[in-house]
Amino acid sequence: MILNNKLGALRTKPVSSSREMLNARTAVAVLLAGLALLLGVQLWQSLDWRVLHDTAIIHYGAYMIDHYGFVPYRDLFDTVLPGTYLFHLAIGRTLGFGDLAFRVVDVAMLLALLAVTWRVQRPLGVAVAWAAALVFGLVYLSYGPSMSLQRDYLGLLPISVAILTASTAGSDSRAAAGRYLLIGALFGLTTWAKPQLAIGLPIVLLLAISNHRGDRSSMQFRLLLQAGILAAVGMVLVAAVPMVWTWQQGGLPAWLEIFNEYLPLYLQMTGDFKVLSGTDAILYRFTSWQELGGLGVFLAATALGGYLALFESGLTGRNRRLVVAILALVAAYGIYPILSGQFWNYHWIPFAYFASLGTSLLLVPLAANRDWSRTRQLFVAGLFALVPALTIRPAPYFFRQLPEILAATAQGRPGG
User: Fold this and answer.
1) pTM for this one?
2) What is the distance between the alpha carbons of residues 153 and 253, in angstroms, rounded to a whole number?
3) CA dihedral 388, 391, 393, 395 (to 10 degrees)
4) Distances from the Cα of 223 to the Cα of 180, 213, 218, 230, angstroms
5) Burial code of 400-416, b = ≥16 C-beta within 10 A, e = fewer?
6) What is the pLDDT of residues 192-248, one digit of tens each?
7) 155, exposed or middle or buried, with CB in 10 Å at 0-12, 13-18, 19+?
8) How far is the CA of 237 from the CAs of 124, 185, 192, 244, 324, in angstroms?
9) Residue 9 pLDDT
10) Hey, which residues does 72 pair with through a beta bridge?
């Protein structure tokens, strides 16, 4: 109510000319152009990054499997799921195990994710689509090489494709079954990295079902059951592939032993190697979770963006359902780190992704051509501009690498 009153107070007189209407959009366009330029520079710089952190250990394990015939989990003790080893083996066997090959895959996956993200948000407005893609791209790169291709990040591309599939669902009943199966398979692919990444499946599946039914008043239980079964089949079939590979490699008994004997202990361990249980574990998870990985500004922007999109923009039909799904996914992946009790930066990257989509909702009213005063339009545009100003920072080594890139570009050769 307070927010509504404040926004209402900004209504002065209706926009009197097309020039006034363009002021806020022009400011947003300039900001997005600046963010795009920064993203391009940081992508170029990132080609010089090394493989670091957990990913280096996993990549080395894949190298030992490929070059020396190591049996996963029998010869390599790790809690990494088999699907992650398959992913790193695919990189090594196609492009090599070096740093540059790793960087090429990381950049290609990021660009693919941002392209799908743009397509998902496009029905809500061009500026909304660019905002979602650019904000997340910069957030991801701001963590530096330690975030590159982390397991929690790997599932985002399949999830985004699943959302696109659901958001573009039509009324053809014959195509619906294949759509539900595909959505389940895409979420099955996310389990190759982390099983809990599939937490968003019910939300995306409901989006697909609601778009299939259109504006009809209710969903039949039978339809929900059929869609759920098809999605479950697709997920199980895809999720089983890495386990079959592990069995063929001879590592399944060792994996089961690690899963049953070590993993429960590992999940009770905090970042400073203390084992907690009972009330202590609950308190630790709650106190760690409430920090939101330093992404609280994105949550506030998402809440306001969701309000503006749903109640101030006149959205109807599938666009309104898409906004509701995005807000539900923000909430689901906001609790995602609690499921494992792990709260490192990379455990928050799924939340950062969906919160970036939620933040872009601030621009929906501008795209919807609401009959607002110039002051109110600029107010909303300023709120969006405030989010990257407060949260997005250049990637590590940005200022150290920048002179090298500028010098190399002037000489017509790659920099860094």
Assistant:
1) 0.89
2) 28
3) -110
4) 11, 10, 10, 11
5) ebeeebeeeeeeeeebe
6) 999 999 999 999 999 999 988 765 555 677 888 999 999 999 999 999 999 999 999
7) buried
8) 34, 7, 12, 11, 29
9) 47
10) 76
